[in-house]
Structures are given as C-alpha cells and as structure tokens.
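#structure-requests
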Amino acid sequence: MGHPQLILQSERLAFSTWSPSQIGDVIALHRDLAVTQHLSGRIEDEADAKRRMGVWADEFEKYGWCKFRVMRKSDGAFIGRAGFGLEEGEPEIGYAISHAEWGKGYAQEAAFALRDWIFRATDHQSFIGYAFTQNLASVHILKKIGMQFTHTDVDDSGKELSFHKLTKEQWHG
C-alpha cells in the first residue's frame, strides 16, 4: 500500500487503507495484551505487523476491502483497525480497537458502518463474523448489527468461537 486512501466515514470515524509508515500503529495495537487476548492471544512483533499489512494490501487490491486503519475524525488519532478479511470463502468482519479507546462505542459504530458499506459498495450478498464466545461485548456487537448465530467452533488454543452471518436479504439498509 502506498498513500492511504479514505474508504468510508461514519459519524465519528474515518476508515482508510494503510501506508508502510503506519506500521508502528499496527505494532502497538497488537502488542497490547488487553487487545490481543481477544484476537490471536499472543503479542506480535514487527515481522507479524509487516505480514498483516501485506495481507491487507493484497486483500484491498483483490477485493476492494481489508482491515482498514480507523481514525477519530475530530483529531485524526489512530484508534484501531476494522474491516473485512477472507474467511471460509467470504468476507469476515473484524475489528481491534486500542485499549485506551474502549468503552466509547467505536467498535459498534465501526461494525454498523462496515455492515452498511459492504452491502452498498460491493456486490457481496453476505458476510460472516466471529468472536471468542466468552468475549460477550464482541458477540453482542455481532448480534446488534443483525448477524445471526450459525455455529460454534474451537480455535487452535482450545477456545470456543461463536460464528455469525448476515445476508444482504436480512439487512434492512
């Protein structure tokens, strides 16, 4: 990814692609144990961040979406990442908000904005989302944006994941 491209905006948030100079934001986000306990469960390093950013660049090039860089519109501050990845052959919504920004409604605002954006800006007919079953806040957000529970599965560490799906037909945008 070269120069960041603004993709969408919500009331308080702006979503863009990434530039290589923003790797520090990815590293800081994925080094915070409060955040990573809800993701991979491990602290990540610069090599992991470069790999992630490469995947996001490839996904954006191929699909027109990725895990976007999320900034607060009022001051341009980095607050996390949110967007879509590819899981089980279809878009998978996901987000990670900086721990300092928790409790402000940003994850929910991002999820609503992304839900509406993918159905309005792309021809995708559905997307999935998942979270650790014990991460009640994230599971609640998936349900709040209209996603329907489909199944549970267990990740490599033995933690249960709760999977959800939303179709364009179910969406009332």
